[in-house]
Design goal:
This protein has three helices and eight strands. The protein is of the alpha+beta class and 159 residues long.
């Protein structure tokens, strides 16, 4: 298959798949009211510690929300930071955190935690705060559910 044909086929497949895509599914683990912690914005009373940096204040606890993961489709492609994406590394995509920042992600469903490095931009679906690499999702045991409630804690902040 030539490069143009492959590109046309890929675009056509993405258009067809997007027609069937929905984001209204709720994981079975999130359906039981007692299993789902309340998601909310972090208030000043919830901030454990604050790190003062020149011209910036960084909160060590960022936000609760939903995490999803990405893998095969982006394997080997360049991320927004310029690094090549490797789904077997402990990396993640976040909307605003600087590249190279370290974030502790705790799955609120099973209390498992991982530390990831921000290498990409993402988590653009409403309510999602982070997109994890496949390796990080495996460590959290969330591959089958696809989306899990998480708490984020900033460990190191890169300028």
């Amino acid at each position: 298959m030539t490069g143009r044909a492959r590109t046309a086929f890929t675009l056509a497949a993405m258009v067809v798949l997007s027609a069937f895509a929905t984001d209204s599914a709720i994981p079975a683990t999130a359906r039981a009211a007692e299993a789902v912690p309340v998601m909310h914005e972090v208030t000043t009373s919830e901030i454990v510690t604050t790190v003062r940096m020149p011209k910036a204040t960084v909160l060590t606890r960022i936000k609760s929300g939903l995490a999803s993961w990405y893998g095969d489709m982006w394997q080997g492609r360049r991320t927004a930071s310029g690094r090549i994406f490797d789904m077997n590394e402990m990396t993640a995509a976040h909307k605003t955190l600087p590249f190279g920042s370290k974030v502790k992600v705790t799955d609120l469903r099973n209390q498992r935690s991982v530390i990831v490095t921000i290498t990409d931009r993402g988590a653009f679906f409403p309510g999602r705060v982070i997109d994890l690499s496949l390796a990080a999702a495996r460590q959290l045991r969330m591959v089958n559910t696809g989306v899990d409630p998480v708490r984020l804690e900033l460990l190191s902040y890169q300028n």
